[in-house]
Amino acid sequence: MKKQFIGFIAILLVLGGCGSPKENEDSNTKDETSVSESTVSAEPATVQEEIQTNTNEQDSVTQYVNNQVINDFINSYNNSIESPLENIDNSSRRYRCTAETKGYYIVMEDLEEDFRINIDQTNDTASLGTAGMKDIFADFATVLSGTVSREEAYTYFDEAMSVGRANPDGLGNLDITIYRDTDISRGHIQMQKKK
């Protein structure tokens, strides 16, 4: 009796494992699908993957870099300014990121208590000099400050260029240093929010 019971169980296991041909095709298809899905999900996430917070397109946030402060600024800038930041790279350090826009080289740094932006000329914009940085200055000043208007930024820049230095009181809630072109170096702009 015991041998018959074990034999019966063995037959059930063999027959149960075989299944019908249709079931085998379905399971093969499922295996192929799960393999292709796992292959897709195993690929590394791109730096600029979209994270939808709502179905509304304006509410979407793009993940450009791993640093939240820098990433928030890049999203604010790109949503506010017609010429977005491009060639974004933070491969060197977590707290530092570089980008380009309108022919200028941008360095953004999240330094524990400060968020600093440096705007540098490139070979494409060197012929314009520091005076040619007026629009890019206004772009960054309005976005970083959040309270400064473009007109205020233009006025501040014009005064700084005519006097030869930036107003030490800054612009609104920003500390600004404008380095003019010299014979040995190109001009650049540095700005950060006041503490």
**How much of the sequence is in beta strands?**
15-25%
Overall domain count: 2
Distance, first to last CA? 88 Å
State the helical fraction. Answer: 40-55%
Mean pLDDT equals 77
Give the structural class: alpha+beta
What is the general shape?
elongated
Outline the low-pLDDT stretches. 20-57
Secondary-structure element pattern, one letter each: HHEEHEEEEHHEE
Number of strands: 8
User: How is the biggest beta sheet arranged?
Assistant: 6 strands, antiparallel
Report the total helices.
Answer: 5
C-alpha Rg (nearest Å): 29 Å
Oligomeric category: single chain
Strand order of the largest sheet: 3-4-5-6-8-7
What does this structure look like?
With 195 residues, the chain is an alpha+beta fold. It has two domains: 2-42; 66-193, no CATH class. 40% of the residues lie in helices and 25% in strands. The protein has five helices and eight strands; from the N terminus they run ααββαββββααββ. The chain has helices at 2-18, 21-42, 68-80, 134-145, 150-163; strands at 49-51, 61-63, 86-93, 96-101, 104-111, 114-121, 174-179, 188-193. The strands form two sheets. It has a six-stranded antiparallel beta sheet, covered by helices on one side. A two-stranded antiparallel ribbon has the order 1-2. A hairpin with an 8-residue loop joins strand 7 (174-179) and strand 8. Helix 3 (68-80) packs across helix 4 and helix 4 crosses helix 5. It is elongated. Residues 20-57 have low confidence and may be disordered.
Provide keyphrases for this structure:
195 residues; alpha+beta; 2 domains; 6-stranded antiparallel sheet; two-stranded antiparallel sheet; 5 helices; 40% helix; elongated
